[in-house]
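Example 4.3 (complexes with small molecules)
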Amino acid sequence: MSSQATYPDLRGKVALVTGAGAGIGKAAALALGQAGCNVAVAEINEASGLQTTSEINNAGGKALFVLTDVSKSASIKALVEKVVAEYGKLDIAVNNAALSPDYGTIADLNEDTWERLIGVNLSGVAFSLKWELRQMQAQNTGGTIINMASATSIKAEKNLPAYSTAKHGVVGLTRVAALENGEHKIRVNALAPGAVSTELTINTLATMGFSEEEYSPRVGLFGRFARPAEIAQSVLWLASDASAYMTGSVMTVDSGLTIV
Ligand SMILES: NC(=O)c1ccc[n+]([C@@H]2O[C@H](COP(=O)([O-])OP(=O)(O)OC[C@H]3O[C@@H](n4cnc5c(N)ncnc54)[C@H](O)[C@@H]3O)[C@@H](O)[C@H]2O)c1
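Answer. The structure with nicotinamide-adenine-dinucleotide bound is encoded below.
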């Protein structure tokens, strides 16, 4: 099952990752640190954000923690300002922060849950794009942005109304941002993981009444959950010049989940 981790040479690049205190965001931040980037760890949970930051620094990388709430546009503005004050520029952004899915039908929609999830999982990506794109446009040196979508961006799923709708919206935002920024040489792509072994997955399965082990055989074509580090490898690829001709795309990394 294991794949060898590889790291492109991203020395001299500045990256920010939202939701970098846990799961996929943490794995992406660690991988970007390994690849030589200066990394801004943007997280609403101070303890976990500081933990990721010290893991990158202890591994010989360079990281900075910025307490961030992606659902607040002013918080993202302050994040980008802090990154530029500290590292002088922004080259790579990974818009990853999200809340765990709601669970229930549209007929039973809870309005408060809807507002909260859309606020973080969709508006959070829009606000992040706004301030990241302004900075990258002003620099005039291009850039690459990776929005964390999901298999539920592509395939409708019952009982995840706000989550699945927000993830469809992330693909829409990705395409619009790519269209508007080709002339600035800023690439914007979405990454759509299948089921990944993280806190978010454990929470979702618990609401459905399953453990991770019980659910594994139903996951994609390999009967297992992805490891966050496997998804981080795709983040690195989208962040690097290996994907230089790619923008406005949705890249699935889902062991075939969306083709069955
Ligand atoms: N786990 C999966 O199976 C899976 C599958 C497809 C897509 N995704 C997506 O990948 C991304 C990461 O998921 P994960 O499984 O690692 O989740 P996770 O719950 O393990 O981590 C999410 C992180 O985001 C942070 N966060 C939450 N709200 C925030 C806010 N308002 N501002 C800043 N940070 C905030 C949390 O504190 C947490 O550290 C999400 O966009 C998720 O929708 C996950």
